[in-house]
Amino acid sequence: MAAVRTSSEIGFNRVAIIAVLVVTIIFLAPIYWIASTAFKPRNLATTIPPTVVFQPEISPFVKLFTKRSQMRSPPSPEEYAAAPWWERVVFDGGEKIVRDGKGQVQWSGYPSRFLNSLIIAITSTVLAVGMGTFTAYGFSRFKVKGEADLLFFILSTRMLPPVVVAIPMFLMYRAVGLNDSHVGLIILYTAFNLSFSVWLMKGFMDEIPKEYEEAALVDGYTRMEAFFKIVLPEAATGIAATAVFCFITAWNEYAFALIMTNRRAQTAPPFIPSQVGSGLPDWTVIAAGTFLFLLPVAIFTFLLRNHLLRGMSFGAIRK
Amino acid sequence: MAHIQLKNISKTFGNHTALTGLDLDIADGEFFVLLGETGAGKTTTLRLIAGLEKPSEGQVFIDGVDVADWGAAERDVALVLQQYSLYPRYTVRENLEFPLKPKIRRLPDAEIKDRVDRAARTLRIEHLLDRKTDRLSGGEMQRVSIGRAIVRKPRVFLMDEPLSALDAKLREALRTELKNLQMQLGATFLFVTHDQIEAMSMGDKVGVLNHGRIVQTGTPHEIYNNPRDTYVASFVGSPPMNLIDGRLVNGRAVMAPLNFELPFSGGAKASGATDGRPLVFGVRPEDVYLESGAPVEARVHDVENHGVEKILTLRVGDAMLRATVPARTDVAIEQAVRFAWNPDKVVLFDKGSGVSLRHAG
């Protein structure tokens, strides 16, 4: 650290701050666009030039969450009994939420899609990061026969665009009854994220000195105990970083969700654009759906931000 | 407390041979120092005893029991490393408690507290107990490391260059402390170092390791005064022993190719030192002295002033000899001096094998 700053350093700092501001504005512009559209009345959503000052309203969210009876009839008792609990909550709640006198208003498909997204993304992230951590530890600490080949093989699953295998996967899934199921998508996303998780975690594991575990072994702990007590806390930063990336991938995945699911296990990404098709697109509703969809990733990343920053620079700092 | 025995240990890592036919016997309560250069196999030996590595060949005995099938946890040894031996997320107290809490020998809480406090008092780290380990200095960290070893009352203390990363002053202080601690505990210590001063000053016994083989085992005195071969002679001692090629002719040491002669009186002791046989004469720098009437002339090549003494580098022909002389000796670089040696202290080595004639046969 230089205690005395020269004028050129101060100048550089100013330029850097301006550059960061510009980049931040560029990155935040679409998010602002979506957030503002989500609160606009429908007639102001597509004005040219864009309306910046307006009376915000929540009608896009009401429209996003509800559906009038003309669109879909209420569930039959059998359908109701067969539905999972969260859909039943939606059916029940739909009776209460809004009534316009003429027809019934129900929950739309969005809440259940959103819940599907949460279930599938969280479960597959936990699985991918969990398995990845153990696998990476194994690769990092033990002599594995053909280690380089195995690691290459693991990475090779990422060497083609996943959509290439979508059709065969769809056929296989249909044959075993996994299409339009939560388990099906969870397996798919876990498999897809696992290679990434193994590689990233291996880097983090390699950085943790093996002396820590050896000290624990000598102190009378089993390797498993040493792993949980010493290695895992040390790897927390790496686990957080890996988890954020896996979560974002699973949360945003579109192509497989579109092909493999249609109703029961459908996630939010294929659902939101499907609303465009019926009649004139209501951009405010789509923006509202997208805005809510952004929140979990934003919250998750915000919670882990300290770990993330350290995780990003982890490899760069030498001991 | 334990008696450690290594029998015919070999260890290979792939194509690399770390240890060959190693035999070691460490008596109960002994402070044994394993001395060797980097890569000589010291750490491997230690890890074999700790159970962190398995020998490719040979057996390890602790108190006469073959521990081949014992894991590191069961061997009940303590390991102190040069660095990374403290858990970074824990406080000093948690670090000290950690070895007392494994399932296989979990102690009652009162006992844990008692032992931690006692170890902290012994090592004078009581004021650090609630500090996180990343806020400790190097010396404090090493103290805590040693503390982690002593709270357990293990059968053996294994120390892998615990002082090497510290600065000189602290190293000296901890050296004395460690030695005192060992005497207090009466425990078996295996201490690994590349620093021959540490080895000489701390060890009850020293084992010199070279390229995976034990070259010589003995008390520091034996190692210093009676090195088994030219490797030990040149490795132990600072500055090392002077080694000069020559022959014995009629009870006099005749140097060739250096072409000077000195008296030799150890003829009777050096069995087999027959006249004319190619030899290497070894003499410690402190047994080389300057005298106006001495038989050999040399020039002062370099003077190192160490305060209590001066270490001179003398040039004879194109060879260099070291001599330790009192600090008051007044010499200048390139000055012509005359020197002799203490003929009783000269060690003879076979020129071909490098083995001391006292040890051969």
TrEMBL record, chain A:
UniProt keyword tRNA processing present: no
BP term (GO), one: transmembrane transport
Alphabetical list of Pfam families matching this protein: BPD_transp_1
UniProt entry keywords in alphabetical sequence: Cell membrane, Membrane, Transmembrane, Transmembrane helix, Transport
Gene Ontology cellular-component terms listed: plasma membrane
Stored CDD domains: TM_PBP2
Domain ABC transmembrane type-1: start-end pairs: 114-304
Subcellular locations according to the entry: Cell membrane
InterPro entries found in the cross-reference section: BP-dep_ABC_trans_perm, MetI-like, MetI-like_sf
Keyword Cell membrane: yes
Membrane topology listed for this record: Multi-pass membrane protein
Family: Belongs to the binding-protein-dependent transport system permease family.
Name this polypeptide is given: Carbohydrate ABC transporter membrane protein 2, CUT1 family
Organism: Mesorhizobium qingshengii
Taxonomic placement: Bacteria, Pseudomonadati, Pseudomonadota, Alphaproteobacteria, Hyphomicrobiales
UniProtKB/TrEMBL annotation, chain B:
One Gene Ontology term from the biological process aspect of the record: carbohydrate transport
Topology in membrane: Peripheral membrane protein
Molecular function via GO: ABC-type transporter activity; ATP binding; ATP hydrolysis activity
Descriptive protein name: Multiple sugar transport system ATP-binding protein
The species this protein was found in: Mesorhizobium qingshengii
Keyword Transmembrane: no
Domain ABC transporter: 4-236
GO cellular component: ATP-binding cassette (ABC) transporter complex, substrate-binding subunit-containing
One Pfam entry name: OB_MalK
Family label: Belongs to the ABC transporter superfamily.
Keywords: ATP-binding, Cell membrane, Membrane, Nucleotide-binding, Sugar transport, Translocase, Transport
Compartment(s) where it occurs, according to its Swiss-Prot or TrEMBL record: Cell inner membrane
